[in-house]
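Database export, one record per block. Field names are fixed; values are copied verbatim from the stored entry.
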Amino acid sequence: MKRSDFLKGLGLAGIGSVIPWRPTVIHATPPKPPGVDCILIPNETAGPYPLDLSSDASKFRQDVTEGRPGVPLTLALTVVNVNLGCAPIANARVDIWHCDKDGVYSGYVQPGSNTVGQTFMRGIQLTDANGRVEFRTIYPGWYNGRITHIHFQVFLSSVLSATSQMAFPDALNDEVYTTPLYAGRGKNTSVVNNAADMVFASPPGDLQYEMLGITPNTTTGGYNGSMTIGIDGPTTGLAELEPETGGQFVLRQNYPNPVTEHTTFAFSLLRTSHVRLTIHDLSGRSVATLLDARLDEGRHAVEWDRSGDMRIASGTYVYQLEVENASGRFTQVKTLTVL
């Protein structure tokens, strides 16, 4: 599915003000996250159960469980550019998917189950200014032929940049699978440890760049998982391919970002178009519409003042520019942080 369809079904209302745009050049490279080795994430198979859910706004979410039980797992992933000293990449799309506690994937017919039409344990996020996304899920179960893992893909401007998997420590797998929710199946009897998994492309037992860092989460009673994902990003610091725009517009990152009191959203139009600029929370809910108007070709900017009528709470949000003209309808999304 084309990324131009992403979030297009959300209901929107309201209007903002348009001002002449004066470009400001910012010569700054985001700092490398502390303690990060600048290593390209190994490429792994997407496996037999991927689904493209980018056209479904409801799958842009943090909680991917859809109520399925399991030991809570909070995933914090950071996407960095190995070509720029592992500087964090904002607005990268991260898709994750994995099986439930019983080893079942959503969306497919599998031995003993039919989950066609279901989407549990699948979700999409866009990285914030620090290159970070967070998902709330459960500790995956296992199925015959594989050790415990989570699949993920990273997209830059709708172009696939990485496909890989996350691994879990052997001792923790054994521990979790003896807890009451998982005890019905028990420990993995088909692949007893990571070294025995023949699907990971990395040398057997050498998963240091795909191994999640795991710590207990005393709030949820489960675990926190963290990983830095190094990708082969653009050397200019800007994504060079943006097919979702159809060449009809250029949307810049809002500035300043993070937002304290006010910020400016700047964009350029190739031709006269109807333009909608909206802000959504991380569940896909529309929280503000800043612009809904027909604009001439050229440079434009929308100023947003938090002290006005459209105040929103602190947090990470997504803003979407939708452009419609004789060539079609085109959409792009980016993230912003409100302090």
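Remark 1: The domain at 3-25+241-338 is CATH 2.60.40.1220 (Immunoglobulin-like).
Remark 2: Residues 170-176 form the longest helix (7 residues).
End of record.
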